[in-house]
Each structure stands twice: as C-alpha cells, then as structure tokens.
Amino acid sequence: MKLNEKFDPFVAEWASFAKNPNYNLVERCLKLSQTLEYPNLDITEYIKKLNDIGNSLKFSISKHHGFKGDIDDYYNPKNNFLNAVLEKKSGIPITLSIIYAEVAKTIGLDIRIVGFPSHVVVKYGEEMILDPFNGGKLLSADDLREILYQKYGGEIEFSPEFLNEIEPEKILIRLTRNLKNSYVQSYVYDMAMRCVNMILALEPNSPEEIRDKGILEERFLNHDNAIRLLDQYLEISPNADDVDFVLDLIKSIREKINQL
Questions:
Q1: Hey, which residues does 165 pair with through a beta bridge?
Q2: What is the reported pTM?
Q3: Are residues 139 and 181 in the same domain?
Q4: Cα(first)–Cα(last) distance of the chain, in Å?
C-alpha cells in the first residue's frame, strides 16, 4: 500500500481471511458477502444450510436441490453473494457451481469447478461437464462452443484449457470483479474501489485492476494517484487494446492539474 492511500480495515481483514488455507471456498465466499454488503452475516449459519441440503440428498444433486439459473434478473449483484443465492435459490453460473460442488462433496462426489470463459461450469472426472445454471445439464463440446459463440461471437475459439479446474482465489476474484462492475454501473464508486482493493490484495499485479483503480482515483479527484496507476498499467500492458483510451485519459488529467 502506498503511503498516500487510506488504509481500509475491511480489505485487510478480507485479505487475511481469503489467503488463509484453513478456510474453504464457501467460507471465503461468505466472508466476501460479509465484507461488502452483509456485515452481520453468520457464516456458520449458511455453512449449515449447505450441509443440510447435502444431507437431504441421496443420489441426485441435479434434480432435487431446487436451485435454478436467475435468467430474469441475471445481473442483479445479489447473484454474486452466496448467502443471497442460498436464500432465493437462484443465481448465476459461478455461485450455482460453488453450491453444486459443495453439495456434491457432502454426498461423496468429487466435482470440480471449471473456470470456463463467461460461464462457470463443473466437471466430474475429466469427461462429464455439467452446467448447474441449467439444472446440471450434461454439456457436449458443441454446447461449450455455443456458449462461447453467444458471448464472444467468433472472437474466441474453444480450447481444452478452458476446462481446467479453477483455483479458489480465481473464483473469489471473478465474483469480486462482477461486483465491482455492478457498483461502477450504479455509480457507487466507494464500493467499487473496495472491490478493486480486495482483488489487488489477492492479485497485486492485475493490469485490469490497476487500470480501474486509476480510473476510480480520477473519479475521486485524486489526480496524482490516478496518473501513477494509469502509467503503471501502460508499463505492464503496453499493447493493450485500450492504450489510446488510457493515454487520452492521462492527458485530460494532466490538463485538469494544470488548470488548478
């Protein structure tokens, strides 16, 4: 942390918790909820809810757990908070995959979370790819290509590495990044900044977050910090697609400073 930046005890507590190997993914996701929107959340209560779901199932986790994809309100930020998804029994691919894998563990199945681009799924062994967002549907290679096409057009070709298991910290980063974007779209910049700092606590050299922190610092009129971070972004990612945008932003910030 730079000396001229404010210390955020919430971020510090989050980072300590998220990096602690004694906590599992579900506990860390619930800590995320507690840090951002639910300060009085009882983590053990929601761990019990998940265990109860698992204990109530015998043979099937795809038909009887009652969760579904939130098609009608997909971009609701609550879909990124595991406690909220457990309450309303609907969510987005990433949170439903976390629940799916955890419930499977309770009944003795080793299901892994896969960081497929734009649509997190799970796998059983190396061959069975399941989509918790669509009721645990078994996905074919064509289904996976269609998901990519729907999101990216023809810009991204399918690659086998897309089906690799995703690390817990990467899951937390994806969730926090979703929430950052939601806060930015709602003009809640202080919470967006908290999300950026939470991600940087796990991934200090993330170009995207360094850039976004610079943009947010400019929103807060912290011109010097903004320029320093945006310059750092250009050093890390000199060939990024948005280099011209960032250069123009730096130029406009310098003009503002000169007018002061």
A1: 114
A2: 0.91
A3: no
A4: 27
Cα–Cα distance for residue pair 95/120, rounded to 1 Å:
9
Domain that holds residue 82: 9-163
Are residues 131 and 42 part of one domain? Answer: yes
Cβ atoms of 55 and 104 within 8 Å: the answer is no
Using an 8 Å Cβ cutoff, are 130 and 81 in contact?
no
Number of domains in the chain: 2
Same domain, 23 and 132: yes
Cβ pair 28, 168 in contact under 8 A:
yes
CA atoms of 132 and 119, how far apart (whole Å): 10
Divide the 260 residues of the chain into consecutive groups of 10 and give the mean pLDDT of each group.
Answer: 68 94 96 96 94 74 73 93 95 96 88 95 93 94 93 89 94 96 94 96 96 96 95 96 96 88
Same domain? 212 vs 145: no
